[in-house]
Amino acid sequence: MRFLLFVLLFLSFAYALGLVLANNTDIGVNLLFSQAPAMNLGLLLIICLILGIVIGMLLALLLFRVFQTKWEISRLQKANQNLQQQLTQANVVIDRQANAPTVEEAVYGTTGVPVQDETLATVDNASELTKRKRD
Q1: Alpha-carbon distances, residue 52 vs 84, 89, 114 (angstroms)
Q2: Nearest to 53, CA basis, from 16, 93, 85, 90
Q3: Interhelix angle 41-99/2-22, nearest 10 degrees
């Protein structure tokens, strides 16, 4: 990979040198609001080529960043819609479970009277007595 990069760099340098040597006439450049001094045409071509490459790369990076942001926003919106659907489905399931009759209601009906265990109350009183004795 480094060798290929070195060859490309050498070829671009040779091309630039060829441009300077082949176009050795001096010309003046009118910049609309000012006049640049007379310079070699080959050098002017190389400067314009380098500026074009740099500006093109900067614009490409800027556009790539914009597209990448749009893709990310689109992906997040799809994920948000998916999560909203899951939340809606979960709420429906919770509502069904909350409104479903319990086992006791299904077996005994809604008029069932809760039965209280009396042995539990006597055990609680006995534990209170033992606590008082220790104190």
Answers
A1: 47, 55, 87
A2: 16
A3: 140
Q: Is the pTM of this model over 0.70?
A: no
Render the burial of 73-101: b for 16+ CB within 10 Å, e for the rest.
eeeeeeeeeeeeeeeeeeeeeeeeeeeee
Amino acid in the structure at residue 59: L
CB 27 within 8 A of CB 41: yes
In this structure, the number of other CB atoms found within 10 A of the CB of residue 42 comes to 18
Token representation of residue 67: 């597209």
Give residue for tokens 């919106």. 77
Residue 79 tokens, joined? 């994920």
Rounded Cα–Cα distance for residues 133 and 99 (Å): 48
CA gap 19, 34 in Å, rounded:
26
Residue-wise pLDDT tens digits, 37-95: 888 888 888 888 889 889 998 988 888 888 889 999 999 999 999 999 999 999 999 99
